[in-house]
Amino acid sequence: xxxxxxxxxxxxxxxxxxxxxxxxxxxxELEVTQRTIYRDIAALMASRVPIRGEAGIGxxxxxxxxxxxLMFSADELEALMLGARLVSGQGDSxxxxxxxxxxxxxxxxxxxxxxxxxxxxPLFAPTNSNCVVDRVDAGFIRIAIRSRHKLQIEYxxxxxxxxxxxxxxxxxxxxxxxxxxxxxxxxxxxxxxFRVDRMMTLSPMDERIPERRDKLLSRWRLxxxxxxx
Length: 229
What we know:
Elements: H1 3-16, H2 23-30, H3 34-46, E1 51-54, E2 58-61, H4 74-90, H5 93-109, H6 115-119, H7 138-147, E3 149-156, E4 162-174, E5 179-185, E6 190-195, E7 199-208, H8 213-227
Antiparallel strand pairs: 1-2, 3-4, 3-7, 4-5, 5-6
């Protein structure tokens, strides 16, 4: 790996990690020695990349730093196209259009010699012909998750019994043929999974979810692990 490419990879490692990153971890990821990492970190700091820390403890990069040019490797471009094709085959209509728009924006700024790698990537994702039709717009669910707002829904269970629910949506899973909302249900006082195609109506509420989404997701994961034991 060229040194310039390795320096870019180090910056990407910082972007992926939320806490301090040790030289040992970076050396293992990039398959180089820790001494090489120390020299690379020093070079990045000399180039005014906002990295803080010290050897033996770990390093962090301040938020907000970005490279002047938007640079992608061929593998990264193929990964983006495969992801976009997966979204087109499994996502809701708005998300599918957004994936196409994102690819068009990326294609407009990558170097010309890399554009075919993105647009003509020989990687294909299945389209689900058995995908059920939703009565409500899943886009409102995604907005509610981002903004931490409650949703009021009319929900039909597997037996066709309809109930009114107020839910705290915290995640949206795109399963084979269906979309599944992970939410806290006020009626049941617990976490539940709601199929979007069984939502008869959906109304965004002004009331915000009183807990942070990451904490709710942690509690949901713990419950899922307990249920699988």
